[in-house]
Amino acid sequence: MVSLFPLTLTEGLVRRRGQVIMGPVSLTVEGRGLTVLMGPNGAGKSTLLKALHGIERLSAGRLRHGCPSDQSHAAQAFVFQTPVVLRRSVAANLAYPLKLHGVGRAERARLIEDWSARIRLSDRLDQPAARLSGGERQKLATARALIRSPQLLFLDEPTANLDGRSTREIEDLLRAARDGGTRIVMATHDFAQARRLADDAWFMMNGRIVETGPSPQFFDTPARSETRAFLRGDILE
Amino acid sequence: MNDIWAGIAAAIRLILTADADLVEISLRSLQVTLSALAIACLIALPLGTFLAIQRFRFRRGVIAVLNALMGLPPVVVGLVVYILLSRAGPFGVLNLLFTPTAMVIAQVIIITPLIASITHQAMRDLWAEYHDLLISLNTGKLQRVATLIRDGRRSLMTAALAGFGRAIGEVGAIMIVGGNIEHHTRVLTTAIALETGRGDFALALGLGFVLIGLALGVNLLTHWLGRTEVEGRW
Ligand SMILES: Nc1ncnc2c1ncn2[C@@H]1O[C@H](COP(=O)(O)OP(=O)(O)OP(=O)(O)O)[C@@H](O)[C@H]1O
Ligand SMILES: [Mg+2]
Known about the structure:
The complex is a heterodimer.
Chain A: E1 7-16, E2 19-29, E3 34-38, H1 45-53, E4 60-64, H2 69-72, E5 76-79, H3 90-100, H4 105-118, H5 134-146, E6 152-156, H6 164-179, E7 183-187, H7 191-197, E8 200-205, E9 208-214, H8 217-220, H9 225-232
Parallel strand pairs in A: 3-7, 3-8, 5-6, 6-7
Antiparallel strand pairs in A: 1-2, 1-4, 8-9
Chain B: H1 2-16, H2 20-53, H3 59-70, H4 74-85, H5 100-136, H6 141-151, H7 153-168, H8 172-178, H9 188-198, H10 201-231
């Protein structure tokens, strides 16, 4: 399959109801590693992730991929801040993206078995996904995003509201995916998690990227005073 | 009191012996209502779904009109259909007045807005829930509609059942356009009105029991549909 990297956002800007809620932001995403996106509530993290994924309409600027844009979607996945769970069984949720892309029955069965085992929901495959707990839904959405081995995966606070064990399980999934070659960009409010996972980090405030840098330098010796204050836990105005 | 008990007993006998009149009237009711329901669903289900997922210029206006139509008094619908179908009216040449077809037309007009409106609400909620994922997976319009219809099938059934319930119990409009003609356009509701007026409580009550049975059945089915949603059966 063709590579969608490098993915470049040039002077990307999102305006809603006359207000600039993100941008201008210029970024390039290359093919390896895990990037953590941090910043206060309302900074524009979700908006930026969606813009990079190509599902947020840009008011200005451009998004480019290393491959034709119509092929770029198939190689990406997104786990939303509130995970979307289809009103179907757990198995049917996992099968959904596979069916969309015409994956054959036998291969589907194999993948569903494999991924349900990884999120420890093997014995609940036939149950309606609506009955899962919040953490289980989050895991299901993550597995459904990873099941087609995307080149690029976005996650928007994938472990908010999860307990320690579920958080670790999702982090393990993400590490394995990264090591398997999936490029990951995720927003998180969890500093400890950011340190555990990040290869590099972006810090965002008021719709703009303020600072970027490799981990652990980003966390230990941030260059900008805003970043330092944020990482210290100060309230930013 | 005795009269009433005698009436109820006679009514039960009519039902148990499958009285010819009672069966004929019940079947005609079902035939008219199910025909109207089929036609109304063909219009309302796609319309409601379309309104839920497609943004276009007069969308809000269409929804407002739909909700207003839902509140139309059936008697007025009957009156309008009567005028349209009467000899002097624009569709007079079709000779449809006082036929089952006229009753079907009136019922379609009465229940289509109801079914479309319930469909719209249900599909709008489902679309809000699914929107991000379906966009992210780059689904085409047909795939989206197929997914929504499949996962919203219980809501669609519920909408149809609501339409059936409203149509089967409707009396004003079909009395006007059907005329309650024996062996031709007499249905459960109009027959009950007539027999009550004539003092034949046995037949009126028997027909009433059938009607209540149908309405209860629809309610039970709706309730059961709601349960299967939680329990995840079909
Ligand atoms: N459709 C919209 N119309 C108007 N404003 C919006 C819209 N969507 C988002 N916003 C605003 O844009 C800003 C950025 O939102 P965004 O969801 O990207 O923030 P975030 O960094 O993800 O915040 P959080 O940490 O709370 O998830 C917020 O102030 C939000 O209110
Ligand atoms: Mg967010």
